[in-house]
Backbone:
Protein backbone atom coordinates (compact mmCIF):
# COMPACT_ATOMS: atom_id res chain seq x y z
CA UNK A 1 0.00 0.00 0.00
CA UNK A 2 2.80 2.39 0.91
CA UNK A 3 4.53 1.53 -2.35
CA UNK A 4 1.43 2.42 -4.38
CA UNK A 5 1.01 5.69 -2.45
CA UNK A 6 4.61 6.69 -3.13
CA UNK A 7 4.24 5.84 -6.82
CA UNK A 8 1.06 7.92 -6.99
CA UNK A 9 2.75 10.88 -5.28
CA UNK A 10 5.66 10.64 -7.68
CA UNK A 11 3.24 10.65 -10.61
CA UNK A 12 1.45 13.75 -9.27
CA UNK A 13 4.77 15.54 -8.74
CA UNK A 14 5.76 14.64 -12.29
CA UNK A 15 2.56 16.19 -13.61
CA UNK A 16 3.13 19.34 -11.52
CA UNK A 17 6.70 19.59 -12.80
CA UNK A 18 5.52 19.18 -16.38
CA UNK A 19 2.98 21.98 -15.94
CA UNK A 20 5.56 24.37 -14.54
CA UNK A 21 7.93 23.45 -17.37
CA UNK A 22 5.45 24.34 -20.09
CA UNK A 23 4.43 27.52 -18.28
CA UNK A 24 8.08 28.57 -18.04
CA UNK A 25 8.64 27.69 -21.69
CA UNK A 26 5.64 29.76 -22.75
CA UNK A 27 6.81 32.77 -20.75
CA UNK A 28 10.33 32.43 -22.18
CA UNK A 29 8.94 32.31 -25.72
CA UNK A 30 6.83 35.42 -25.15
CA UNK A 31 9.79 37.36 -23.73
CA UNK A 32 12.02 36.22 -26.62
CA UNK A 33 9.46 37.38 -29.20
CA UNK A 34 9.15 40.74 -27.46
CA UNK A 35 12.94 41.22 -27.45
CA UNK A 36 13.20 40.29 -31.15
CA UNK A 37 10.37 42.72 -32.00
CA UNK A 38 11.93 45.64 -30.10
CA UNK A 39 15.46 45.04 -31.43
CA UNK A 40 14.16 44.55 -34.97
CA UNK A 41 12.25 47.83 -34.88
CA UNK A 42 15.32 49.62 -33.54
CA UNK A 43 17.72 48.42 -36.23
CA UNK A 44 15.22 48.41 -39.08
CA UNK A 45 13.55 51.75 -38.48
CA UNK A 46 12.87 53.75 -41.68
CA UNK A 47 15.87 55.72 -42.89
CA UNK A 48 15.43 59.36 -43.80
CA UNK A 49 17.03 60.67 -46.99
CA UNK A 50 20.70 61.50 -46.60
CA UNK A 51 22.77 63.97 -48.58
CA UNK A 52 26.07 63.04 -46.98
CA UNK A 53 27.40 59.84 -48.54
CA UNK A 54 30.02 59.36 -45.82
CA UNK A 55 27.76 59.70 -42.82
CA UNK A 56 24.04 60.37 -42.64
CA UNK A 57 24.09 61.82 -39.16
CA UNK A 58 25.33 65.35 -39.78
CA UNK A 59 23.04 66.52 -42.55
CA UNK A 60 19.85 65.35 -40.86
CA UNK A 61 20.58 68.02 -38.28
CA UNK A 62 22.31 71.35 -38.20
CA UNK A 63 26.08 70.91 -38.27
CA UNK A 64 28.54 73.78 -37.97
CA UNK A 65 32.33 73.44 -37.81
CA UNK A 66 34.17 76.75 -38.06
CA UNK A 67 37.60 75.08 -37.75
CA UNK A 68 37.29 72.54 -40.56
CA UNK A 69 38.91 72.77 -44.00
CA UNK A 70 36.92 71.96 -47.14
CA UNK A 71 38.11 69.94 -50.13
CA UNK A 72 36.65 70.06 -53.64
CA UNK A 73 38.14 68.47 -56.77
CA UNK A 74 41.50 68.07 -55.04
CA UNK A 75 41.66 71.66 -53.79
CA UNK A 76 41.49 72.82 -50.19
CA UNK A 77 39.20 75.71 -49.34
CA UNK A 78 38.48 77.67 -46.20
CA UNK A 79 34.73 77.53 -45.53
CA UNK A 80 32.84 80.61 -44.40
CA UNK A 81 32.38 81.04 -40.67
CA UNK A 82 28.81 80.47 -39.54
CA UNK A 83 27.53 82.64 -36.71
CA UNK A 84 24.00 81.56 -35.84
CA UNK A 85 23.33 84.89 -34.14
CA UNK A 86 23.94 86.70 -37.44
CA UNK A 87 23.09 83.98 -39.97
CA UNK A 88 19.51 85.08 -40.54
CA UNK A 89 17.94 88.51 -40.89
CA UNK A 90 15.03 88.96 -38.46
CA UNK A 91 11.71 89.22 -40.27
CA UNK A 92 10.13 92.67 -40.24
CA UNK A 93 6.51 92.49 -39.12
CA UNK A 94 4.21 93.33 -42.01
CA UNK A 95 7.07 93.60 -44.53
CA UNK A 96 5.65 90.91 -46.82
CA UNK A 97 2.38 92.20 -48.22
CA UNK A 98 2.38 89.94 -51.29
CA UNK A 99 -0.35 87.32 -51.38
CA UNK A 100 -0.54 83.96 -53.10
CA UNK A 101 1.30 80.65 -52.92
CA UNK A 102 5.08 80.67 -52.91
CA UNK A 103 6.74 78.56 -55.61
CA UNK A 104 10.34 77.98 -56.64
CA UNK A 105 11.17 77.03 -60.25
CA UNK A 106 14.50 75.71 -61.52
CA UNK A 107 15.16 76.08 -65.26
CA UNK A 108 17.82 73.53 -66.21
CA UNK A 109 18.09 74.84 -69.78
CA UNK A 110 19.15 78.32 -68.71
CA UNK A 111 20.54 77.44 -65.25
CA UNK A 112 18.27 79.95 -63.57
CA UNK A 113 16.11 79.95 -60.47
CA UNK A 114 12.81 81.83 -60.24
CA UNK A 115 10.80 82.37 -57.09
CA UNK A 116 7.19 83.57 -57.23
CA UNK A 117 4.48 84.40 -54.76
CA UNK A 118 1.29 84.24 -56.72
CA UNK A 119 2.13 86.01 -60.00
CA UNK A 120 4.65 88.31 -58.31
CA UNK A 121 8.31 87.53 -58.98
CA UNK A 122 10.47 87.49 -55.85
CA UNK A 123 13.77 86.27 -57.30
CA UNK A 124 15.47 85.57 -60.64
CA UNK A 125 19.07 84.44 -60.42
CA UNK A 126 21.64 82.04 -61.87
CA UNK A 127 22.26 78.65 -60.24
CA UNK A 128 24.45 75.60 -60.90
CA UNK A 129 22.65 72.26 -61.20
CA UNK A 130 23.91 68.68 -61.46
CA UNK A 131 26.98 68.00 -63.55
CA UNK A 132 28.24 64.68 -62.12
CA UNK A 133 24.71 63.56 -61.17
CA UNK A 134 21.65 65.13 -62.86
CA UNK A 135 19.25 67.22 -60.85
CA UNK A 136 15.92 65.33 -60.91
CA UNK A 137 13.09 66.82 -62.95
CA UNK A 138 9.76 66.89 -61.13
CA UNK A 139 7.51 68.69 -58.65
CA UNK A 140 8.62 68.59 -55.04
CA UNK A 141 8.30 70.39 -51.70
CA UNK A 142 10.88 71.66 -49.22
CA UNK A 143 11.01 69.04 -46.46
CA UNK A 144 13.92 70.33 -44.36
CA UNK A 145 15.71 73.63 -43.74
CA UNK A 146 19.18 73.86 -42.16
CA UNK A 147 21.21 77.02 -41.63
CA UNK A 148 24.34 74.99 -42.35
CA UNK A 149 25.50 71.37 -42.60
CA UNK A 150 28.35 69.24 -43.88
CA UNK A 151 28.23 67.35 -47.19
CA UNK A 152 30.80 64.81 -48.35
CA UNK A 153 30.95 62.23 -51.10
CA UNK A 154 32.05 61.60 -54.65
CA UNK A 155 35.02 59.55 -55.76
CA UNK A 156 38.46 60.22 -57.18
CA UNK A 157 38.85 63.60 -58.83
CA UNK A 158 35.22 64.54 -58.09
CA UNK A 159 35.41 63.81 -54.35
CA UNK A 160 34.29 66.55 -51.99
CA UNK A 161 34.12 67.22 -48.26
CA UNK A 162 32.35 70.49 -47.55
CA UNK A 163 31.66 71.69 -44.00
CA UNK A 164 29.44 74.71 -43.34
CA UNK A 165 27.35 74.38 -46.50
CA UNK A 166 25.01 77.32 -45.90
CA UNK A 167 21.24 77.78 -46.20
CA UNK A 168 20.28 74.24 -47.14
CA UNK A 169 16.71 73.39 -48.16
CA UNK A 170 16.13 69.75 -49.12
CA UNK A 171 13.30 69.23 -51.59
CA UNK A 172 13.67 65.61 -52.80
CA UNK A 173 15.56 62.88 -50.95
CA UNK A 174 19.16 64.11 -50.74
CA UNK A 175 18.73 66.88 -53.34
CA UNK A 176 18.57 70.42 -52.04
CA UNK A 177 18.93 74.12 -52.69
CA UNK A 178 21.95 75.60 -50.91
CA UNK A 179 24.68 78.17 -51.06
CA UNK A 180 28.05 77.25 -52.59
CA UNK A 181 31.36 78.81 -51.56
CA UNK A 182 33.67 76.35 -53.41
CA UNK A 183 33.05 77.68 -56.92
CA UNK A 184 31.76 80.76 -58.72
CA UNK A 185 30.57 79.05 -61.87
CA UNK A 186 26.88 79.93 -61.61
CA UNK A 187 24.96 79.73 -64.83
CA UNK A 188 26.65 76.39 -65.63
CA UNK A 189 26.19 72.81 -64.38
CA UNK A 190 28.61 72.35 -61.50
CA UNK A 191 27.06 70.23 -58.72
CA UNK A 192 26.65 66.59 -57.76
CA UNK A 193 22.87 66.92 -58.17
CA UNK A 194 21.88 69.69 -55.78
CA UNK A 195 21.04 73.23 -56.87
CA UNK A 196 23.96 75.52 -56.01
CA UNK A 197 23.31 79.21 -55.41
CA UNK A 198 25.42 82.22 -54.61
CA UNK A 199 25.44 82.54 -50.83
CA UNK A 200 23.68 85.91 -50.93
CA UNK A 201 20.89 84.40 -53.05
CA UNK A 202 20.69 81.25 -50.93
CA UNK A 203 20.26 83.36 -47.79
CA UNK A 204 17.55 85.48 -49.39
CA UNK A 205 15.64 82.41 -50.61
CA UNK A 206 16.08 80.58 -47.29
CA UNK A 207 14.53 83.46 -45.36
CA UNK A 208 11.62 83.69 -47.82
CA UNK A 209 10.71 80.03 -48.41
CA UNK A 210 8.84 77.85 -45.93
CA UNK A 211 8.74 74.17 -45.13
CA UNK A 212 6.34 72.77 -47.71
CA UNK A 213 7.03 75.44 -50.34
CA UNK A 214 6.73 73.80 -53.80
CA UNK A 215 9.89 73.38 -55.87
CA UNK A 216 9.52 72.51 -59.57
CA UNK A 217 12.58 71.43 -61.53
CA UNK A 218 11.91 72.11 -65.20
CA UNK A 219 13.69 71.20 -68.41
CA UNK A 220 12.68 74.71 -69.50
CA UNK A 221 10.64 77.47 -67.93
CA UNK A 222 8.84 80.61 -69.10
CA UNK A 223 7.33 83.16 -66.75
CA UNK A 224 5.27 83.23 -64.73
CA UNK A 225 4.54 79.50 -64.26
CA UNK A 226 5.04 77.54 -67.49
CA UNK A 227 7.27 74.64 -66.40
CA UNK A 228 8.06 72.19 -69.20
CA UNK A 229 9.08 68.76 -67.93
CA UNK A 230 10.23 65.65 -69.78
CA UNK A 231 9.74 62.38 -67.88
CA UNK A 232 9.36 64.02 -64.45
CA UNK A 233 9.83 61.86 -61.36
CA UNK A 234 6.39 62.91 -60.14
Residues:
Amino acid sequence: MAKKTAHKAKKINSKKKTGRYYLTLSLFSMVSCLVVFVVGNYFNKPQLPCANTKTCQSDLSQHIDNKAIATFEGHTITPPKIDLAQALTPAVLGANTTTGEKHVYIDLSTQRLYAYQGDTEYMDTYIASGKWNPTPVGNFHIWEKLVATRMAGGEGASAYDLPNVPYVMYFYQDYGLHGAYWHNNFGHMMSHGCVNERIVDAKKLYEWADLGTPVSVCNSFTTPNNCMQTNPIN
User: Anything to note?
Assistant: Confidence is low (pLDDT under 50) at residues 38-47. The CA atoms of residues 70 and 162 lie 5 Å apart.
